[in-house]
Specification:
3 strands; mainly alpha; 10 helices
């Protein structure tokens, strides 16, 4: 399950072909991967914001209390795993439009493995250096998009030209999801799970 990570990071086309060659039952067994990997960024965020802290200006270290961090960690896990599941289900739903056979878990697994760079970059939040985290997050998002565009034609067994359109539709759904999550985060941050800062 985790053995696919190096291939996805360094030779994604070959790795997607290996995953696509698996039987439906073998693909279903890969479902725990996104469930477990989506824990990395929230746990790292918890450690980084409550134990390590960060600096904004000067040498003052800013942290939040453990009690106020827990709801934020839970919500970030739900948002991250929700992205994988919802977009994965959309991949399955759109498969009829592109005349290919799929099943819901296949779409979720595809999206889960495509999000590997985001999961790995999110682990760096354990030691929050804002400029570095922003650079890593941006690079991870770009590479995730590349993995989606590489995966769709191979995993869904469609020609490359139609696979590009398919992947573009998936990307648009992802953008809509991100906007919805940003609005939700703003509301939750303001009214429900406001962090409590410590000295």
């Amino acid at each position: 399950m985790f053995g696919y990570i190096p291939g996805l990071m360094f030779n994604p086309r070959k790795q997607w072909q290996s995953i696509a060659a698996l039987s439906d039952e073998q693909i279903k067994r890969l479902l725990p991967y996104p469930i477990l990997m989506a824990l990395l960024p929230p746990l790292a965020l918890y450690i980084g914001t409550t134990q390590v802290g960060w600096t904004v200006v000067g040498d003052d270290v800013v942290r939040i209390t453990e009690a106020s961090a827990i709801p934020l960690v839970v919500l970030s896990y739900v948002a991250l795993l929700g992205a994988v599941v919802i977009i994965g289900l959309m991949i399955n739903w759109m498969s009829e439009t592109y005349q290919t056979e799929a099943f819901p878990i296949k779409g979720v697994v595809l999206m889960g493995y495509a999000c590997t760079p985001i999961f790995l970059a999110g682990a760096c939040a354990a030691y929050p250096i804002w400029w570095l985290d922003i650079m890593l997050g941006t690079g991870a998002a770009i590479y995730t998009i590349y993995l989606i565009y590489t995966a769709i034609p191979i995993m869904m067994n469609v020609p490359w030209d139609r696979g590009f359109l398919y992947a573009s539709a998936v990307f648009m759904i992802a953008l809509v999801y991100v906007v919805v999550i940003l609005v939700g985060v703003t509301i939750i941050w303001e009214y429900i799970a406001t962090p409590v800062f410590t000295n």
